[in-house]
């Protein structure tokens, strides 16, 4: 029949509930949180056809810190809510109950939301239906999927807390590697004797972690226990015909509500002054501190404050900020992604003036890495593109960022928005073959950032048409797609490019086409033809193709089975084919292996026949939760330098202009390429004026992880989650050619700091419970290639080193009662991870098993 109460009785239950934050790692005897004890008196106020209107009233309510059981941490309701609100705790609440199912509640309209939600948490324990199996039912967290199990007088209910509808989650991550994982459990066990609930115990736990570092996150535990203590004679139920009339008769002013929790109406809260916050972190925001943990932590702290600041206040900050730290402030405001920050930045930055070109770039890259992309931001950039832009480089960056924003909006299911469709039309028009090569290349880079399958045929067309730089960009765009998007037409085009069926291509383009074939879904014939063509290639190109094939075999690439099958043919696999001289190379290895996360590196270096670097790609990939993330790529390309050392250009490259450039990719986003020099005259000028300092490709702080969530605990208290991950980075590179020493030197320096801040918070009346888990580290990775081309074969020295770097973990918890007590706890540990040298050539492959030596690891 199901649980029910007898009329003319008052049932007295003792109710104890608590919610506490937990340490992510390790355990402590003390956890910040709040507990509640009370006596609940329940009686039947109306009954008809098995349906009961139950009256519930609380007495003797007390609140208690879960961290410290001291007299000063035990609080009367008046200390928690104020004298007027605390009286509402004793006001009765009614719920409609039929065979253990709660169909709704009736609440006094004047009762504060927080008080009502606590009572909702108690009423949710009476949601005990006499069924077995799955069903959907309401509780404080909304409509939830539950599974009932019964054994004699015991009922066990499993709540699928992730299915509950009453929750709030911010914009999802565009890549799962930078996303979060939510694990939640909810269990209710009850004893029911003769249709009377004697005991109910409930427990739920939520664990929200960061995918890229599963030890970072926040946890919360909530418990409830209700036990029948007594039964005494009670009042006579009203005899009204309907429940509505019954409520009107016994509780005027009460209205029907759902059992799901209601969020308190928004009200003004005091937030820390943005001006004072900027002053406190300004020193750590100086350019020399970029790439350090202190700078990144300041970025996150200031970001949280700016998200509550007005447009007027932020504009004043921009106008008064010293030049030395202005760019870093722009980084933070760009990452805030509120309407106020967006409008303040657009008011401050005038693209028609050339005096703040670097500030424009920092703002635009902040837009490109938006974790909460908005159509309004895309429209703003489109409007700026229509207006006057003083710098050609800034205009190129605007176009590239429009592609990134458009792609993110499409991933969020907003491809049909008018502004997104307009952006698509513009990018298509810009990539038309009637435009200049520079215009086409810029728009292809923008299309590359969209990751839309509709771009595949566009890239394929431009890959074949050229010229070389355009073809290389187009093929790199194709590399970003999984094999299922690479059709027969694409593969045919790549084969025509590699084998030069219709025209002559630069060898960097041919190598890129071969890479797309070998890592896609090649047939045995395609692999065989590539290997049989080695004898017709220049020595360095042949050496590179062979090294790439061997690297795919060594790392066990999915296509290695096809390659191995082809190598069974002795016409392909023989000494003449595989004994290739040259210094070009391709090598992949592991940077780190952790639980759930793996990172790899890949180095491809192609030299010209004269011994000068033609192209190098340094890539780092991160794999987690079945997804991959192209963390970084620094591509350095040089051409037309053979004349400087009286060398002979390779086939198809006789007329190339002297040029060297660097093209960066950062977290899947293609950034604007940087030109070292363009033309012989420019080369000579920069050689004489060179300072020896590398050219910066990417510099600043960006927000990578941005997760907000509100979880309603069955206790009746909301648990807020805010996970932020930021990167402070400085990627630079240089290429020097010494005519006197007949030597070239290429340097790529990656310096960065990462901070993951995971905050969990609960607010109940005047009590604020806060927990924060912080992981921070900073590292430097240098890659240097030195080539002596005094003779052939020329001497090559390649080095990739990671310095010893610090790792710090902090966990903090606090309780603070306004006008009352406060409690804080903190624990931390630090250790160093020793530096490493990474193998860059297959002859040193046994070095791939990289060990991290922990020098110190202690909590304090």
How would you sum up this structure, described in words?
This protein is an alpha+beta fold and 860 residues long. Helix content is 29%, strand content 38%. The protein contains 23 helices and 30 strands. Strands 1, 2, 3, 4, 5, 6, 7, 8, 9, 11, 12, 13 and 14 form a 13-stranded antiparallel β-sheet that branches. Strands 10, 22, 23, 24, 25, 26, 27, 28, 29 and 30 form a 10-stranded antiparallel β-sheet that branches. Strands 15, 16, 17, 18, 19, 20 and 21 form a 7-stranded antiparallel β-sheet that branches. Strand 3 and strand 4 form a beta hairpin. Helix 14 (437-450) packs parallel to helix 16 (468-479). The longest helix is centred in the middle third of the chain and has 20 residues, at 392-411. It is elongated and about 110 Å long. The protein starts with 8 loop residues before the first strand and ends with a strand. The model is unreliable at 843-860 (pLDDT under 50). It comes from Eptatretus burgeri. Its main location: endoplasmic reticulum. It is found in: Endoplasmic reticulum. Keywords: Disulfide bond, Endoplasmic reticulum, Signal, Transport. Disulfide bonds join 410-415.
The geometry reads as: elongated
- Termini, distance in Å? 57 Å
Structural class from helices and strands?
Answer: alpha+beta
Mean pLDDT: 88
Count of separate DSSP helical elements? 23
Sheet with most strands: 13 strands, antiparallel
Share of β-strand residues? 35-45%
* Number of beta-strand segments: 30
* Low-pLDDT stretches: 843-860
- Global Rg: 33 Å
The amount of helix comes to 25-40%
């Amino acid at each position: 029949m199901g649980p029910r109460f007898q009329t003319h009785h008052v049932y007295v239950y003792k109710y104890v509930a608590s919610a506490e934050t937990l340490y992510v790692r390790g355990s402590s005897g003390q956890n910040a949180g709040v507990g509640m004890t009370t006596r609940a008196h329940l009686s039947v106020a109306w009954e008809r056809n098995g349906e009961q209107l139950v009256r519930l009233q609380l007495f003797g309510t007390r609140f208690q810190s879960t961290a410290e059981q001291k007299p000063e941490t035990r609080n009367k309701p008046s200390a928690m809510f104020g004298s007027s609100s605390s009286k509402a705790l004793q006001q009765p609440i009614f719920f409609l109950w039929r065979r253990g199912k709660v169909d709704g509640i009736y609440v006094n309209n004047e009762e504060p939301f927080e008080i009502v939600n606590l009572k909702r948490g108690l009423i949710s324990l009476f949601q005990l239906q006499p069924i077995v199996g799955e069903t959907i039912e309401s509780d404080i967290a909304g409509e939830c999927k539950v599974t009932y199990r019964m054994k004699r007088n015991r009922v066990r209910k499993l709540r699928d807390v992730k299915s509950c509808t009453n929750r709030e989650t911010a914009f999802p991550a565009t890549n799962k590697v930078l996303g979060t994982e939510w694990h939640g459990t909810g269990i209710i066990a009850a004893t029911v004797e003769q249709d009377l609930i004697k005991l109910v115990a409930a427990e739920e736990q939520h664990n929200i972690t960061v995918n890229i570092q599963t030890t970072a996150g926040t946890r919360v535990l909530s418990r409830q226990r209700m036990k029948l203590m007594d039964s005494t004679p009670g009042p006579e139920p009203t005899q009204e015909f309907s429940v509505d009339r019954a409520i009107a008769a016994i509780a005027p002013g009460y209205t029907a509500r759902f059992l799901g929790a209601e969020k308190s109406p928004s009200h003004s809260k005091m937030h820390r002054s943005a001006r004072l916050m900027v002053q406190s972190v300004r020193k750590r925001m100086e350019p020399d501190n970029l790439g350090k943990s202190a700078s990144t932590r300041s970025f996150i702290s200031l970001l949280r404050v700016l998200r509550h600041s007005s447009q007027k206040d932020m504009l004043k900050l921009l106008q008064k900020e010293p030049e030395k730290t202005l760019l870093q402030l722009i980084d933070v405001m760009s990452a805030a992604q509120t309407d106020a920050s967006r409008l303040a930045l657009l008011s401050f930055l005038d693209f028609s003036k050339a005096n703040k070109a670097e500030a424009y770039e920092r703002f635009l890259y902040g837009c490109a890495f938006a974790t909460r992309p908005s159509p309004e931001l895309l429209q703003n950039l489109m409007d700026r593109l229509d207006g006057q832009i003083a710098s050609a480089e800034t205009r190129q960056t605007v176009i590239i960022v429009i592609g990134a924003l458009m792609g993110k909006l499409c991933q969020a299911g907003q491809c049909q928005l008018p502004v997104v469709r307009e952006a698509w039309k513009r990018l298509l028009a810009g990539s038309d073959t009637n435009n200049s090569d520079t215009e086409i290349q810029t728009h292809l880079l923008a299309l590359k950032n969209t990751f839309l399958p509709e771009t595949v045929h566009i890239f394929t067309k431009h890959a074949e048409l050229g010229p070389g730089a355009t073809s290389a960009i187009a093929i790199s765009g194709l590399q970003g797609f999984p094999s299922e998007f690479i059709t027969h037409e694409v593969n045919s085009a790549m084969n025509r490019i590699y084998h030069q069926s219709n025209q002559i291509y630069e060898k960097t383009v041919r190598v890129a086409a071969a890479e797309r074939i070998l890592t896609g879904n090649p047939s045995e014939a395609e692999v065989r033809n590539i290997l049989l063509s080695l004898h017709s290639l220049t020595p360095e190109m042949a050496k590179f193709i062979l090294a790439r094939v061997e690297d795919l075999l060594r790392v066990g690439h999915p296509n290695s089975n096809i390659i191995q099958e082809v190598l069974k043919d002795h016409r392909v696999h023989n000494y003449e084919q595989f004994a290739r001289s040259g210094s070009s190379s391709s090598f992949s290895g592991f940077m780190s292996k952790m639980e759930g996360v793996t990172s790899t590196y890949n180095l491809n270096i192609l030299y010209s026949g004269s011994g000068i670097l033609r192209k190098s790609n340094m890539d780092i990939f991160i794999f987690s939760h079945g997804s991959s993330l192209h963390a970084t790529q620094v591509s350095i390309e040089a051409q037309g330098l053979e004349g400087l050392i009286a060398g002979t250009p390779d086939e198809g490259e006789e007329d190339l202009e002297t040029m060297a450039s660097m093209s960066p990719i950062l977290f899947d986003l293609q950034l604007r390429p940087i030109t070292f020099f363009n033309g012989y005259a420019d080369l000579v000028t920069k050689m004489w004026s060179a300072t020896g300092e590398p050219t910066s490709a990417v510099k600043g702080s960006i927000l990578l992880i941005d997760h907000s969530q509100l979880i309603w605990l069955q206790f009746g208290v909301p648990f807020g989650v805010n996970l932020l991950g930021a990167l402070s980075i400085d990627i630079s590179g240089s290429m020097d050619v010494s005519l006197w020493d007949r030597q070239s030197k290429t340097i790529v320096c990656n310096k960065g700091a990462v901070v993951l801040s995971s905050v969990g918070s609960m607010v109940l009346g005047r009590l604020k419970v806060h927990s924060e888990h912080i992981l921070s580290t900073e590292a430097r990775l240098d890659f240097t290639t030195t080539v002596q081309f005094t003779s052939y074969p020329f001497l090559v020295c390649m080095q990739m080193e990671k310095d010893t770097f610090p790792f710090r973990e902090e966990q903090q918890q606090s309780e603070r009662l306004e006008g009352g007590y406060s409690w804080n706890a903190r624990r931390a540990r630090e250790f160093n991870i020793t530096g490493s040298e990474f193998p860059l050539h297959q002859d040193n492959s046994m070095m791939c098993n990289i060990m991290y030596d922990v020098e110190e690891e202690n909590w304090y």
